[in-house]
User: Which sequence fits this backbone?
């Protein structure tokens, strides 16, 4: 196996289980590596640090899969890791038949996402190296889960960064156009082939439950960036008299309408609009609501996009504050990896200042427990939710 030595000092963070080696941190290879090759990572003096796979073209050139000398990368290791990931999910009381089974680095399987929707698995390979191990992964999933079907989702942005062509589509068995899932006491339809991400925003499961704490029967509520109505349906279930759910995607809204019926609910106003425009319009009309949820997509795909993203969050927060009745609640979410909790809090404070409204933080949430994050990379706690009472 190719040996790679890191520059002096870099070994410290790897010994502290930091799983990435950036290109400038590499001192040299024993032999010119090819994309996806397995490597033994060593400190400058040659002492063992871990096993990883390499992509010399990517900024994160090596992703470490194992820190144990006795555990080189092999099919057995990949199967074991998926098995461990499954055992962890079995311990959780997620109250749903849909969950994230493998969360990339969070499950020591960098570059691999696996989501389960009832009897179907959805996989996404986000690195060249993990894509090279795809057969092992698929065989392991078939063996461990006995799924009715496996579907591959692709992300053109990620595959261009990593430099590989992605296949996508059906990998095993059959996957229907729609899968019925349940979450707590609500049911949702998920379109795996056409839907966003792997079909559903599993990471917000806990937040969707928390929101019920703030809604009381008769309340008037807003769900911005609603997708298929994750928050809107919970608001209705809690007895909200009026719920407006806004999304730019007609297919997401169509799914939302059907999910509403499926749960025996009615009266949600589904609005197909750019949320920024609609927020502005509601604000101009002087409307206000008891509970407002703002759950936008990631605005910052990379560090360079952060300043613009922060401006976007600020505008959303400002409008959201104006639209919340005194004593009402506003929940703001950010799923941008490059924007941390502190930055989000600063944006909210600055919006509160501009709006001349006092805010009190009443709760916080993060991605749900099936999306573990790594201590050494704090931004892997990517989904932040701040729940505010707007005084
Ligand atoms: C993070 S998801 C929301 C997930 C949702 N809250 C749930 O619980 O399932 C973000 C949503 O924002 C929508 N979206 C993206 N840009 C938008 C825009 N400018 N205006 C309105 N919706 C937008 C996407 O279609 C997507 O459904």
Assistant:
């Amino acid at each position: 196996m190719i040996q790679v030595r890191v520059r002096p000092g870099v070994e410290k963070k790897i010994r502290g289980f930091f799983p990435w080696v950036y290109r400038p941190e590499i001192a040299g290879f024993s032999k010119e590596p090819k994309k996806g090759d397995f490597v033994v990572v060593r400190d400058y003096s040659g002492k063992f640090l871990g096993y990883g796979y390499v992509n010399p073209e990517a900024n994160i050139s090596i992703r470490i899969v194992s820190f144990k000398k006795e555990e080189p990368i092999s099919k057995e290791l990949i199967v074991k890791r998926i098995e461990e990931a499954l055992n962890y999910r079995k311990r959780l009381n997620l109250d749903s038949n849909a969950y994230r089974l493998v969360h990339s680095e969070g499950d020591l399987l960098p570059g691999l996402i696996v989501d389960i929707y009832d009897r179907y698995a959805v996989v996404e390979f986000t690195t060249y190296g993990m894509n090279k191990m795809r057969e092992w992964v698929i065989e392991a999933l078939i063996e461990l889960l006995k799924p009715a079907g496996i579907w591959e989702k692709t992300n053109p942005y990620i595959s261009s960064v990593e430099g590989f062509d992605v296949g996508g589509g059906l990998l095993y068995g059959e996957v229907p156009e729609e899968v019925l899932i349940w979450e707590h006491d609500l049911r949702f339809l998920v379109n795996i082939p056409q839907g966003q991400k792997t079909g559903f925003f599993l990471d917000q499961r806990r937040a969707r439950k928390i929101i019920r704490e703030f809604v009381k029967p008769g309340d008037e509520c807003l769900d911005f960036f609603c997708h298929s109505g994750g928050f809107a349906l919970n608001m209705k279930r809690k007895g909200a008299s009026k719920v407006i759910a806004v999304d730019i995607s007609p297919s997401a809204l169509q799914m939302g309408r059907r999910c509403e019926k499926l749960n025996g609910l009615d009266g949600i106003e589904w609005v197909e609009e750019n949320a920024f425009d609609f927020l502005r319009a509601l604000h101009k009309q002087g409307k206000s609501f008891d509970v407002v949820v703002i759950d936008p997509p990631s605005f910052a795909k990379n560090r360079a996009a952060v300043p613009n993203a922060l401006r976007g969050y600020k505008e959303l927060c400002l409008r959201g504050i104006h639209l919340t009745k005194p004593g009402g609640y506003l929940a703001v979410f950010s799923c941008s990896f490059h924007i941390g909790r502190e930055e989000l809090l600063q944006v909210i404070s600055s919006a509160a200042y501009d709006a001349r409204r006092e805010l009190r933080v009443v709760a916080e949430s993060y991605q749900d427990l099936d999306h573990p994050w790594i201590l050494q990379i704090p931004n892997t706690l990517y989904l932040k939710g701040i729940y505010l009472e707007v005084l």
Observations:
- The chain has three domains: 2-66, 75-173, 201-390.
